[in-house]
Amino acid sequence: MIGIRVHFDEPAGRRACRYCGGALPPGKRADALDCSPDHRTRYHRERVAAEAADARRDKSEADIRAELAERRP
Ligand SMILES: [Zn+2]
Hints:
By secondary structure, this protein is mostly helical. The chain has one domain. The protein contains 2 helices and no strands. The longest helix has 22 residues. It starts with 36 loop residues before the first helix and ends with a helix. The relative contact order is 0.12. Bound molecules: zinc ion. The site of zinc ion (ZN) has 7 residues, from loops.
């Protein structure tokens, strides 16, 4: 998991959205991390995809061969 350091003592307008890096619009909650619900969704969707890609990458070649051998009739 990627750690994100957020300074909550900064007003929302001066902090950056964790998805696009743009400034959070003024009036957002003090603990807001994203500039819009769309960017919140995209951030989480891409993080899940990245973790799945990491899991596939961590599989060793022996694991993949064993898996393929099981599938053969
Ligand atoms: Zn954004």
